[in-house]
Fold Extracellular small neutral protease.
Amino acid sequence: MAGKRLTAGVLVALAPLAAQLLVTPHAGAAAVTTLYYSSSDAADYVSQIDQAAANWNNAVSDVKLVKGSGGATIVVHETDDGQGSYTSTDGHGHGQVYIDKQQVAEGFDVTRIAAHELGHNLGLPDDYDGPCSELMSGHGPGTSCTNAVPDAGEAAQVTENFAGGFAPAAPRVAR
Ligand SMILES: [Zn+2]
């Protein structure tokens, strides 16, 4: 019964490969890339966004998501246009996340939505046919899926994506 608007999750063009070509990989111990996010424009979902960030922090060792409105490169908004939640991002820590209140009203788990959209900001593509155990399967498994934790494969991919640190990539907007 997924409505058409529920398919509006973003298609993210991946940029991390290009970004990695522009930087010298760190030698020795992996450096931690700190990414700041703001949830001040998503007042209804602050706690869920924080939990989503914490879930990523627990799963990935070389990227740390920290809340901070000043200088945040990942900004989360809430919308009410029924177009589904989505992200405009370069796939490397810069992005605008939109959480659709109508999608939430249909029963989709807010923490899962937030973690999924953060996943796009960390360079992961959609995998709607994937299982609930994946974040990037998004709305695919339906409203009964409330998993908001990345699986091992997703965590490993993000670790790889940020092996070269936080090099700004060319912005790409996709829906
Ligand atoms: Zn998505």
